[in-house]
Amino acid sequence: MGITITAFEKSPDGGKGLARDTRVRWALEEAGLPYEVRLVSFSAMKEPAHLAIHPFGQIPTYEEGALALFETGAIVFHITENHGGLLPQDADARSRAIMWMFAALNSVEPPILDLFTARVLEGDKPWTAERLPLVQGRIRARLEQLSTRLGNADWLDGAFSAGDLLMVSVLLRLRMSGILNEYANLAAYVARGEARPAYQRAFAAQLAVNAPQPAG
Ligand SMILES: N[C@@H](CCC(=O)N[C@@H](CS)C(=O)NCC(=O)O)C(=O)O
């Protein structure tokens, strides 16, 4: 049964792989699944046809036969659950991998998104200069804890899992801020994730859509 995801017609990041279709592409590549991409404009995302699949008018979505999903955590979980690859067989290890998926999305991604909000969406507000250090402090506190837990390990809990896929995807957003590089083991962890052939294919696929076109 064919799989179709949605992605930005033109991602605001110009192809840096930060739009969330990249993590879904990555999971699909890890599972060895072919997929189609339906590109949507910002206005199309708010139209009834897209809202019927994604009530919040966002990307990515995932369609497979009669199934339509939104939320990258749910999509990555569905892919790994049904098509294999990124969740361990052992029941306890599997539960821990799922725990790390939630940790990535619930405990690590929110402060990182706050930085984007403070810098970009609300960067012109009078409180930005005071707010930024608070937001950065919350990120550093969380990364310190994550860094301590990761230690010298390659991945969060044994073999690479869907938990690592989401954690690396979330941390990637921090690279441009310089904060990620303050934690050498986390920077190396993200680089290990990016070095995976499946990530490389996912990144190249989104770049093919979003790379700036040469002038002329
Ligand atoms: N929690 C959602 C977040 C989805 C999300 O924020 N998507 C962004 C692109 S990465 C989007 O569509 N932004 C445009 C908008 O909200 O209008 C998920 O993980 O799927």
Description:
With 216 residues, the chain is α+β, with helices and mostly antiparallel strands. It contains 9 helices and 4 strands, in the order βαβααββαααααα. It has a 4-stranded mixed β-sheet with strand order 2-1-3-4. α1 crosses α9. The relative contact order is 0.16. The mean pLDDT is 96. The structure holds glutathione.
What's a quick, concise take on this entry?
The protein contains 9 helices and 4 strands. The chain is of the alpha+beta class.
Layout of strands and helices, then pairs:
Layout: E1 3-8, H1 21-31, E2 36-40, H2 42-45, H3 48-51, E3 61-64, E4 67-70, H4 72-83, H5 91-121, H6 128-150, H7 162-172, H8 184-195, H9 197-210
Parallel strand pairs: 1-2
Antiparallel strand pairs: 1-3, 3-4
Helix pairs in contact: 1-4, 1-7, 1-9, 5-6, 5-7, 7-8
**Helical proportion, percent range:** 55-70%
Radius of gyration: 18 Å
Tell me, what's the shape?
Answer: globular
Mean pLDDT: 96
Number of strands: 4
One letter per element, helices H and strands E, the order comes to EHEHHEEHHHHHH
For this structure, the quaternary state is single chain
Treating each run of at least 4 consecutive H or I residues as one helix, how many helices?
9
